[in-house]
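[Discussion] Sanity-checking designs against the backbone

I'm trying to build intuition for which residues belong where. Below is a structure token string of 162 positions. I'd appreciate it if someone posts a full sequence so I can compare it with mine line by line.
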């Protein structure tokens, strides 16, 4: 019985340590507190009213969290942007590559197809039913968004009857 109790105690200890290490980012926190709890951001973007810390899990993950700081370096907002209500804010004909990168961070990939003359930025996200999805942003040669689209992210290897 002792080995089982020892393993259970070790597992509980790991869970408690993991719980202590995770500190949600909240309005009012300092930039230093955010970086201490979340690590270095994947990008830092200047905003008119301060700075944005981007925490993107692209290309393999389906998450990108934007932490906006005011001019004094305090958190004013935190939001997950790999969600349909966020992605559909992209306005074809108005937004540029820079707008998309500022709002969503780096894409999972930048692709090209014969039927489109510009870049296609691909973002990975997960919808409410837990389906893995892609959101595509089609850019023209000048880097202006011309259209967007979405589709399912289907695994490249499917195993049957194992």
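Best answer:
Here's mine. Compare freely.
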């Amino acid at each position: 019985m002792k080995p089982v109790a020892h393993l259970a105690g070790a597992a509980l200890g790991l869970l408690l340590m993991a719980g202590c290490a995770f500190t949600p980012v909240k309005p009012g926190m300092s930039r230093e507190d955010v970086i201490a709890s979340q690590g270095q951001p994947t990008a830092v973007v200047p905003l008119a009213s301060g700075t944005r810390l981007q925490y993107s899990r692209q290309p393999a993950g389906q998450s990108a969290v934007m932490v906006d700081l005011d001019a004094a370096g305090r958190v004013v907002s935190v939001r997950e942007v790999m969600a349909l209500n966020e992605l559909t804010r992209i306005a074809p004909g108005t937004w540029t590559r820079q707008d998309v990168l500022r709002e969503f961070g780096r894409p999972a990939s930048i692709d090209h197809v014969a039927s489109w003359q510009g870049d296609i930025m691909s973002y990975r996200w997960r919808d409410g039913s837990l389906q893995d999805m892609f959101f595509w942003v089609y850019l023209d040669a000048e880097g202006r968004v011309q259209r967007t689209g979405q589709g399912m992210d289907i695994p490249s290897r499917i195993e049957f009857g194992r």
